């Protein structure tokens, strides 16, 4: 008999009850060191006091109004994102897929509005992930996720990630935009070479395309800057964010330059829930913490220390691990043995991590993780590696 919860996930046998910082507690009393952060969402740790305070206060004032009204918290969050990014304007969504979907709409609308209605195609990268809606599945082009769901939505081309020659060669008179994750998450925790985004920007500018970033996973402080592309200094025209923006309260956002958003006039897009008072209260609380002086420097420093420890681990067990990859606290270890087996064993020992494509063990700790917790995680990882059959 089918479960009441539609069985689209192979779920772990951990019934969650409460969380505190980097720790997650199950209903059977087990305690886990959680380096999944709800898949890169609870970046300030579980139940961050400042976020709790903000959403609790908002819950007693107003939950929802619809976007027919001015929502002061939404205006404030939009302004703060604008002040801290390339963007001039922001639309709030409820999820990452919706934010990416709107980014694609903005790109097509821009071309149509500026005399190029024939430019509607988007070039994406192999190994990327953009969400589970029809358009975002087509944008990523991963066959395993598309299979059985009918004709794939038209308008998407794919090239190898981190390959500028392929990208350039794929541009046609119908191309509207390039869509890329500045650091790939689900697809295998891949950071491109240092000049990749610069090269994409040059291609986009040469052919009159928009450059669209999906920072749903790598953004919001994950790499040690508010947005991952800020390390390269190469701004996009449109960008999707979500995951960590509300520290667990569902909220996404599509950021755009004034130029790119030229066609987004009243009536061109909407959302019942998007940017509702609760969601933006959470978003503003997250920014209060992240934009405090020194926060990102702390993330970058702890990421460097964590990565060094993972490099030592990988080097010590070459029969299990190949190499460490990623950026900041979006960390991956390419495995030699099946990554899923290691993840399962770590979980038995009380440590939660994820897998990613390309047989990678993915680590998404809360950005506030401390050295004690890193040491505890490494102890478990070394134990599991040491006891691995034939390691
Ligand atoms: C998770 C993710 C999405 C989809 O976000 P949802 O909130 O699950 O719709 C899109 N892009 C990237 C890069 C992601 O990691």
Global geometry: globular
Please count the beta strands (DSSP E, at least 2 residues each): 15
Main sheet: strand order:
4-10-9-8-7-5-6
Q: Please mark out the parts with pLDDT under 50 across 5 or more consecutive residues, or reply none.
A: none
Bound molecules: pyridoxal-5'-phosphate
Q: Can you write the helix and strand succession as a string? A: EEEHHHEHEHHEHEHEEEHHEEHEEEH
Distance between the termini: 41 Å
Main β sheet profile: 7 strands, mixed
What structural class is derived from the secondary structure elements?
Answer: alpha/beta
- Under CATH, the topology of one domain can be stated as Aspartate Aminotransferase, domain 2
Approximately how much helix is present in the residues?
A: 25-40%
Strand content bin: 15-25%
Q: Return Rg in Å.
A: 21 Å
Task: Please give a structural write-up.
- It is a single chain.
- The protein is α/β, with parallel strands linked by helices and 391 residues long.
- The chain has a domain at 70-290: 3-Layer(aba) Sandwich (Aspartate Aminotransferase, domain 2), CATH 3.40.640.10.
- The chain contains twelve helices and 15 strands.
- The chain has helices at residues 37-40, 49-59, 72-83, 96-113, 134-140, 143-146, 164-170, 196-207, 277-290, 295-316, 339-348, 371-386, and strands spanning 16-20, 23-26, 31-34, 89-93, 121-125, 156-159, 175-180, 210-214, 238-241, 252-256, 321-327, 330-335, 351-352, 354-356, 360-363.
- The strands form three sheets. It has a seven-stranded mixed beta sheet with strand order 4-10-9-8-7-5-6, with helices on both faces.
- Bound molecules: pyridoxal-5'-phosphate.
């Amino acid at each position: 008999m089918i479960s009441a919860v539609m069985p689209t996930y192979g779920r772990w046998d951990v019934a969650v009850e409460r969380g505190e910082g980097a720790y997650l507690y199950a209903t059977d009393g087990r305690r886990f060191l959680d380096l999944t952060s709800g898949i890169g969402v609870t970046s300030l740790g579980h139940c961050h006091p400042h976020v709790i305070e903000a959403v609790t206060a908002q819950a007693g004032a107003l939950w929802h109004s619809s976007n027919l009204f001015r929502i002061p918290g939404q205006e404030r969050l939009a302004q703060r994102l604008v002040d801290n990014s390339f963007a001039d304007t922001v639309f709030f969504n409820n999820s990452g897929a919706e934010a990416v979907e709107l980014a694609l709409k903005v790109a097509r609308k821009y071309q149509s509005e500026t005399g190029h209605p024939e430019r509607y195609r988007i070039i994406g990268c192999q190994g990327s992930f953009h969400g589970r809606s029809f358009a975002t599945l087509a944008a990523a082009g991963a066959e395993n996720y598309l299979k059985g769901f009918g004709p794939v939505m038209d308008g998407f081309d794919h090239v190898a990630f981190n390959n500028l020659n392929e990208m350039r060669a794929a541009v046609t008179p119908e191309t509207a935009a390039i869509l890329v994750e500045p650091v790939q998450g689900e697809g295998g925790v891949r950071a491109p070479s240092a000049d990749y985004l610069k090269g994409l920007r040059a291609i986009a500018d040469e052919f009159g395309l928009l450059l669209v970033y999906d920072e749903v996973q790598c953004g919001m402080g994950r790499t040690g800057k508010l947005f991952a592309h800020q390390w390269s200094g190469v701004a996009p025209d449109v960008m999707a964010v979500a995951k960590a923006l509300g520290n667990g309260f569902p909220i996404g956002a599509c950021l755009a330059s004034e130029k790119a958003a030229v066609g987004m006039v009243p009536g061109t897009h909407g959302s019942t829930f998007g940017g509702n008072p609760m969601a933006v209260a959470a978003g503003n609380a997250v920014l209060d913490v992240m934009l405090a002086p020194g926060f990102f420097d702390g993330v970058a420093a702890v990421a460097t220390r964590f990565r060094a420890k993972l490099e030592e681990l990988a080097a010590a067990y070459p029969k299990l691990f190949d190499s460490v990859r990623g950026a900041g606290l979006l960390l991956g270890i390419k495995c030699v043995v099946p990554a899923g087996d290691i993840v399962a064993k770590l979980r038995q020992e009380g440590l939660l991590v994820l897998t990613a494509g390309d047989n990678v063990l993915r680590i998404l700790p809360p950005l506030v993780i401390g050295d004690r917790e890193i040491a505890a995680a490494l102890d478990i990882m070394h134990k599991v590696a040491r006891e691995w059959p034939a390691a």
